[in-house]
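Exercise 7.
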Amino acid sequence: MFTGIVEETGRVAAFTQGPDSWQLRVAASLVASDVNLGDSIAVNGCCLTVAKFDDGHLWFDVLEETRRLTGFSQLAPGSLVNLERSLRADTRLGGHFVSGHIDVPGRIEVFEARGKDHYLKVHAPGGFARYLVYKGSVAIDGISLTVAEVAGDSFAVWLIPHTLAVTNLRSKKAGDVVNLEFDLLAKYVEKLHALRPA
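Solution. The predicted structure, written as tokens, is:
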């Protein structure tokens, strides 16, 4: 479980197809300094397991399905990725509950400065916009954000300068793919409502 509060922006050192899985190596400092083998780390919001680490790098095995169903297929050496260690029970909970299980990749439609803030509009394919509500929560590349607008299959958020400074969004532009995870509670409510007797 994660919060969507990004701890560090890492940089992809390598992403190659190995004999058993895709191998993702990420250069990181803060997250790599306090990690154990088998720890869960959210990489652009996707929960991955640390397979190997040293003082400056983290290695992950990535399933073909994960690569196919997320924005990972666009990762290349030098790509910025958002990193967050899993939630500790003895700390403050900022953001919202984020499972690290990506629902669908979305595509940025608009990303522009409006005054001192930045406006980001994303298309959510496949009817997933049903999980979005005004002032509700959404995770974009693992970043906990507040929904400012919902229109059809698209939604928008506003970004403060701090979010741009500490996340990979500073490298994004219109047309880029981002990982989307919708509110976990909304999905459970939908499931329970569907199972309710008529």
